[in-house]
Amino acid sequence: MSLIKKHPIWVCLLGVASALALAIVFWLWTFSPMDGEANSEKKAKQASMDNLRRIALAMHEYNATHGRLPPAVVYDRAGQPLYSWRVLLLPFLGEQDLYDKFRLDEPWHSPHNLALLSRRPEVYAFPLTDSQTDTHYMTFDGWFCAFSSSPEWGDLRPFDLVPVAARGRVFEAGKTSAIPDTFHDVSNSLLLVEATDAVPWTKPVDLPYALDEPLPSMGGLYSDDSLCFVMADAAVHLRSRKELGELSLRSAISSDGEVGLPKAAISILDESERTVLWSLAPILLEGGEKEETFHGWKVLGKTVLADKEARQKVLEALDAGTKDASGSAFCFDPRHAIRASSRGKTVDLVICFECWRIKVYLNGRATGHDVAISDASRPVFNQVLREAKIPLDQDVPRKQPTKR
What we know:
Layout: H1 3-6, H2 9-31, H3 33-66, E1 73-75, E2 81-84, H4 85-88, H5 96-101, H6 111-114, E3 134-138, E4 140-141, E5 157-158, E6 171-172, E7 190-200, E8 207-208, E9 226-231, E10 236-240, H7 246-253, H8 263-270, E11 274-284, E12 293-294, E13 297-304, H9 308-323, E14 336-342, E15 345-352, E16 357-362, E17 365-372, H10 378-387
Parallel strand pairs: 4-8
Antiparallel strand pairs: 1-2, 3-7, 5-6, 7-9, 9-10, 11-13, 11-14, 12-13, 14-15, 15-16, 16-17
Helix pairs in contact: 2-3, 9-10
């Protein structure tokens, strides 16, 4: 006789043990800390996107009321920063009472204003933080951004969109921006993101951005490296930070409708100690090939513009071409390029006269800022290259150019 038949009690005990084991496994699977963390992050992402949407809509309401966006930073008469745009947006977030309590001619950390820091509106609170005073929601501050707060980008001028008591005592600098004038494509222009590092919500700090500098630190707030952001049309998005390529981000950040070459590029061109004009073939070569390339394109030749007159002629033609341009279909088969260097900085312009576009590189880094150019520059470039006995692509027999 088997043990089970001889001792029926074992049947019951085994059944209970099996049921208990299954219950424990089910509980661990359903209510495990990891699953709880995932649910918590899922809710946090949704809450963060809701916050970003509300802030963006408040920006639109501010714009509709005043015909412009708020300045990123409000200054005093001496050019000292006082507080952030986040304070100016309070009435459009249902926080008029809190706004009225601020002394708008004092800095964010004055004794009076600092006492209001802990009254941060929930819309500025990142869901996964315990801080009662900080925010991770920031915009981008730079010359090619919607917000450009530095006095070096525009003299201080009175800012009068404040209560009467503060008028004449507060100032702004940089560009005055408005929707939609600021953004030539609102659905593809970044307005606000989750910054990696938090700041006190009233402090006049955002993400500094420059075409020739590394991207500011964004995201990293979730275990899966997701990033929440909102576009200028108030549409919110959630993406993996790895999915967002650097060029795409740069294009979205600096998507402000500026026409012409970046200010930094113009400065290098104007002060260049060495300027080189290149003749290219519109053929992308693999990295392992031995032929000389310029940002991946086959080089036919180059000439250093040592002669001041030749350099001036090329730069004047470039200036004329970028001022009288509209662009066309984006084929990008470049046959010309310019490199200028000054004070340790370099600007590279890779030029296609088929679609009338220039790709701009600063210090070897693609900026994502494409500039239109007219055909007016091409004859001058070709003349200078021919005089230097540099072959042009049109003179070199070869197969049909490779499109990309």
